[in-house]
Design a protein that fits this description.
The chain is an alpha/beta fold and 293 residues long. It is built from twelve helices and twelve strands. It has a single domain, classed as Protocatechuate 4,5-dioxygenase, Chain B, CATH 3.40.830.10. It is globular. Keywords: Dioxygenase, Metal-binding, Oxidoreductase, Zinc.
C-alpha cells in the first residue's frame, strides 16, 4: 500500500488528474463486464503514420470513438520478438523509437501512457501454456504508440505489450491467443500490430506517394487473406506456407504476420468480422486491418 500511495502522490503532483484517473483505473482489479471488447489487427505501415494526419490515422482515431473505452490496451507488436514470452510490467513504459532515417519530429514524440504491473501479472496468470516473464526494460515500440497516440491522444489508457516468442511457430501463437480471451470480458482491448503483406525488399519507393499501388501478387494474396478471414478458415491462415508463392512473397519473414494470428485466435463463434484501411501501398505492403467483435 505504501508503494501505491507514493505513486499516486507523484502522479497527482506531476501529471495531474488525467494520469491519476488512469492510475485508479489500472490499480483496480479487472472485473468482468457485460460488454465484451472487440479485438483488432492493425496494419501499421510506416512509422510516419504516427504523426501524419492521413486516411489510416483518421480511421484509428474514429475507431476509438466507435468502440467501448477500454480499461487497458494490450498490444502484440511485430517489433518485439523475444525468446520466450514477456509482458511489459512497468508503471511508466518508455516510448521506443525503433527506426532510423525519419524526420526529427517523429523522434521527438513521447507517448506518456501509464503501464500496469497489476494487469501484467493478471495477464500472465491466465496464460497456462508457457511462463510469461515480467519485463521492465522494453516499453512501447512503434508498432504500438504510432497507432495508439491517434486512438487515445490524452494517453489516459494504460498500455502494455506482449512479446512474440520467435522460437515458436504459427500454431503456437494462434493457440496462445486463445488463452487471452478472458481479458476481452474484463475491458482489455487486445491489438495485433503488423502487416499481412510486408515485403520491404520489393517496395516500389518511387510509388509510395501514389494513392494506392500494389503488385499483382500482393493484391492477389491480400484478397486471399481477406476471404479466409471472413470465412473463418483459420487453419489455412496458420499454414500460410501452403498458400503458394504469393504468400511467400508477402511473408518473407513472419514477424509482421504473427500478430494477425493473435487477433484471429481470439475470435468467438458469435463475433462479427470487418475489414478496414484496406489498401496496398508501395507495391508490396498492405495496411489491411481487421476488427473482430
Amino acid at each position: 500500500m505504501q508503494r501505491k500511495q507514493f505513486i499516486k502522490t507523484l502522479l497527482t503532483g506531476v501529471a495531474g488528474m488525467t494520469t491519476l484517473t488512469a492510475f485508479n483505473r489500472f490499480t483496480d482489479s479487472l472485473g468482468e463486464q457485460e460488454q465484451q471488447m472487440p479485438v483488432l489487427f492493425i496494419g501499421h505501415g510506416s512509422p510516419m503514420n504516427g504523426i501524419l494526419d492521413n486516411e489510416f490515422s483518421q480511421k484509428w482515431a474514429k475507431l476509438a470513438k466507435e468502440i467501448p473505452t477500454p480499461k487497458a490496451v494490450l498490444v502484440v507488436s511485430a517489433h518485439w520478438l523475444s525468446k520466450g514470452t514477456r509482458i511489459t510490467a512497468m508503471d511508466f513504459p518508455q516510448t521506443i523509437h525503433d527506426f532510423g532515417g525519419f524526420p526529427q519530429e517523429l523522434f521527438d514524440v513521447q507517448y506518456k501512457a501509464t503501464g500496469s504491473a497489476e494487469i501484467a501479472k493478471e495477464t500472465a496468470s491466465i496464460i497456462k501454456s508457457t511462463q510469461v516473464e515480467m519485463d521492465h526494460d522494453w516499453g512501447l515500440d512503434h508498432g504500438a504508440w504510432t497507432i495508439i497516440r491517434h486512438m487515445y491522444p490524452q494517453a489516459n489508457i494504460p498500455v502494455l505489450q506482449l512479446s512474440i516468442d520467435y522460437t515458436k511457430g504459427p500454431q503456437y501463437h494462434y493457440d496462445l491467443a486463445n488463452e487471452l480471451a478472458a481479458l476481452r470480458k474484463k475491458g482489455v482491448l487486445i491489438m495485433g500490430s503488423g502487416n499481412m503483406v510486408h515485403n520491404l525488399r520489393m517496395v516500389a519507393w518511387d510509388k509510395l506517394n501514389e494513392n494506392e499501388f500494389g503488385f499483382d501478387w500482393a493484391v492477389q494474396i491480400n484478397n486471399t487473406f481477406k476471404d479466409l478471414i471472413r470465412n473463418g478458415q483459420h487453419d489455412k491462415l496458420i499454414k500460410y506456407e501452403q498458400l503458394g508463392k504469393e504468400a511467400m512473397l508477402a511473408i518473407p519473414t513472419p514477424e509482421h504476420y504473427w500478430p494477425l494470428l493473435y487477433t484471429l485466435g481470439l475470435k468467438g463463434s458469435k463475433d462479427d468480422v470487418s475489414i478496414f484501411n484496406d489498401k496496398v501501398v508501395g507495391g508490396s505492403l498492405t495496411m489491411t486491418s481487421v476488427m473482430i467483435g
